Amino acid sequence: MQVKTAFSETLAFEDARLASELFGPLNAHIELIADASGAELETRGTELTVTDARPERRGLVLNLFTQGYGLLRSGREIRGEDLLQGYEELLRDPRADIGRLFRDAAAIVSPRKTILARNTAQRRYMELLRAHELVFATGPAGTGKTYLAVAMALSMLAAKRVKKIVLTRPAVEAGERLGFLPGDMEDKVNPYLRPLYDALGDMLGMQSFAQKQEAGIIEVAPLAFMRGRTLNDAFLILDEAQNTTREQMKMFLTRMGFGSRAVITGDVTQIDLPPVNRAFLREGEEAGETRSGLVHALRVLNGVRGIGFHCFQSCDVVRHPLVGRIVDAYDSHEKE
């Protein structure tokens, strides 16, 4: 049942238990959408009241919770971040069916868990990973660029479409000086490769990951170790590619052998390399231009047949909603 006044509309749900799940623990879901939409949301029992001078925004929020309630009735679990992704989808298309985000979600089955696309951008990315032997994925932190690439690599390894996985990233410090690290070579490079270890441990379990690493089926190494190798039947992932030089990027791309696939991920707004020195400018370069191999490769390889490109936006971030707003704030500041 829906009641409407000048600036408020009230929606009443039939099932008190489902309404409670929809509103979230201590109305956490309500607060999340209120913060994102700028509307005032209040609950009383099974009723939700939306107050906002903009009728289209009231309608959008009510549509969101109506569809969310329908998903709960069909047996699906709804989290706050799911509602937030649904809200972003309705902003793009007010007539969108947010249930489609879950019903048609692309899935990757890794040995330990099934990974579902959390939004349409991730679904398109997963389709690209399946369709292309070489994929470039750019965008802000928290969009799932590396995590989904690792999941796809493990899925293809389990299906015997590749024989090994090689994960690498440049050992570039993010504006800090770590100094001389103790231990052997593995101990020294581990801090740079920690995010890759975390993703593999999450999907495989640390014991299984250690066994595959010891057997040489999974290799995690700094980019410098890739020179001179040709990797056949391998799934290659280059993470933090914005911190590769042009020479390193070309070297990595030419490691691909027969039956291999490669994914290059990075965020071109977080480059830790210094700009090109004016004294060493090449023809066609401008002073201050970045040395980033990722930026250069995106420009050089654009339009090359067989290569897939995917760019995530701040609205595709699936971490805390503050992350997306932080990214937008930094982008606006840089433009100014």
Q: How many E-type strands?
A: 12
Class of secondary structure makeup: alpha/beta
Topology pattern, helix = H, strand = E: EEHHEEHHHEEHEHEHHEEHEHEH
Quaternary organisation: single chain
Tell me the fraction of residues in β-strands, as a range: 15-25%
Kindly report the average pLDDT value: 83
Strand order in the largest sheet = 9-8-10-11-7-12
Write down the Rg. 23 Å
Separate helix tally: 12
Q: Describe the biggest sheet? A: 6 strands, parallel
Taking the alpha carbons of the first and last residues, their distance comes to: 47 Å
Question: Which percent bin holds the helix content?
Answer: 40-55%
- Which consecutive residue ranges, at least 5 long each, have pLDDT under 50? 173-179
Shape call: elongated
Quick rundown:
The chain has twelve helices and twelve strands. The protein has helices at 16-23, 28-37, 55-73, 80-92, 100-103, 120-131, 145-158, 185-204, 206-214, 246-253, 293-300, 321-335, and strands spanning 2-4, 8-12, 40-44, 47-51, 107-109, 114-116, 134-138, 164-169, 218-222, 234-238, 261-266, 307-311.
Q: What brief labels describe this structure?
A:
336 residues, four-stranded antiparallel sheet
How would you describe this structure to a colleague?
This protein is of the alpha/beta class and 336 residues long. Helices cover 42% and strands 17% of the residues. The chain is built from 12 helices and 12 strands. It has a 6-stranded parallel beta sheet. It has a 4-stranded antiparallel beta sheet with strand order 1-2-4-3, covered by helices on one side. It has a two-stranded antiparallel sheet with strand order 5-6. Strand 5 (107-109) and strand 6 (114-116) form a beta hairpin. Helix 1 packs across helix 3, helix 6 (120-131) packs across helix 7 (145-158) and helix 8 crosses helix 9. The chain is elongated and about 70 Å long. The protein starts with a strand and ends with a helix. 34% of the residues are buried. Mean pLDDT is 83; it is low at 173-179.
